[in-house]
Specification:
The complex is a heterodimer.
Chain A (H helix, E strand, L loop, with lengths): L11 E10 L2 H11 L3 H4 L1 H5 L10 H15 L11 E7 L8 E13 L6 E11 L5 E12 L8
Antiparallel strand pairs in A: 1-3, 2-5, 3-4, 4-5
Chain B lengths: L11 E8 L2 H11 L3 H4 L1 H6 L9 H25 L12 E7 L8 E13 L6 E11 L5 E12 L6
Antiparallel strand pairs in B: 1-3, 2-5, 3-4, 4-5
The chains are: A alpha+beta, B alpha+beta.
Chain lengths: 153, 160
């Protein structure tokens, strides 16, 4: 399969990926290791929290979004890593049993000034549950290699 | 967790440190970010990172881990003094996350959190909204990670 390069990411809708099923067990395992707050670990405490029921850690949800991006396109792209994340908005709780779909748009694509052989593509990713409710929005740049000069395509 | 009223802009807390091992980096990456420079030493050396590098989401998740542990330490100290505990609420998100330098296998990152802004919530009078800059610094004193986090913090007189 051809490697995706900077040129393959013009601004606009890029794709929709999923579904990714999320189990109660993985929500509890992630929370136990990285975010052991009662709202992510304990059904009874979670029911009394602002989120009204057991919910996955926001960092877990972001990590799942990353995995969906890697499986969807980053894994076959000339990815050079990312300098950061402009913004993450946690809009609604991740629940055990959710089936997630990820919608990815390219909001900006530009050639790097300091490294002209690479481009910087900014993605807006929205993850939704099966009911179509947006759970998290993320705006994040990824550095991508450019197609070599003279290469076909 | 301290109550909203007990928190001041500029307050800084050292959250502790964490060593990223090669095994830990690969385990997280295999699950959430299976890009070659997070999975394989040789691929890491050939990448812009110059070595096996932790996924940025791993670094952020470890920062969360140390934030929660620090909150639990504060809660235990408050309980020992016989004081009432404040609940840390959920977070609506964050901005300005920067992976400034790679976190490589063997690096020890010290995390800290400094309060940048406090405001009350009109929609939720029982909660205040805190903005804090969370940072990670490696064993050479280089800033490697930074983000501007937002969280709800319980107000002392909620429901009073």
């Amino acid at each position: 399969m051809m490697t995706l390069t900077f040129e393959d990411f013009p601004p606009g809708h890029f794709g929709t990926f999923g579904p990714r099923h999320v189990t109660r067990e993985e929500i509890l395992a992630f929370a136990a290791e990285f975010d052991p707050q009662p709202m992510h670990l304990d059904e009874e405490a979670a029911s009394r929290s602002m989120l009204k029921g057991l919910s996955g850690s926001g960092w877990h949800l972001c990590s799942i979004m990353m995995r969906m991006m890697v499986d969807g396109f980053v894994g076959r792209a000339a990815s050079l890593g990312s300098p950061g994340v402009n913004e993450v908005r946690w809009l609604a709780p991740l629940r055990p049993g959710d089936d997630l779909m990820l919608d990815v748009d390219v909001t900006e694509a530009r050639v790097s000034r300091s490294r002209p052989e690479t481009g910087i593509v900014t993605f807006k990713s929205v993850v939704r549950n099966a009911a179509g409710q947006a759970l998290c929005e993320m705006v994040s740049p990824i550095m991508l290699g450019r197609r070599a000069a003279g290469q076909a395509g | 967790m301290r109550f909203f009223e007990d928190i001041e802009v500029g307050q800084r807390r050292e959250l502790g440190s964490f060593t990223f091992t090669a095994d830990g980096i690969k385990k997280f990456a295999a699950q959430f970010d299976p890009q070659r420079f997070h999975l394989d030493e040789e691929a890491g050396r050939r990448s812009l990172f110059g070595g096996l590098a932790a996924s940025g989401w791993h670094v952020g998740s470890v920062c969360m881990k140390l934030l929660v542990a620090d909150g639990q330490r504060q809660a235990a100290e408050a309980a020992a003094r016989g004081e009432k505990l404040a609940a840390l609420g959920p977070s609506p998100g964050f901005r300005e996350l920067r992976w400034i330098k790679p976190v490589l296998a063997g690096d020890t990152i010290s995390f800290a959190s400094e309060v940048e802004q406090l405001r009350t919530s009109e929609k939720r009078p029982e909660w205040g909204i805190l903005q804090a800059r969370n940072t990670g610094t490696n064993q050479r004193g280089e800033l490697v990670f930074s983000l501007l986090a937002t969280a709800f913090v319980a107000r002392r007189n909620a429901g009073a």
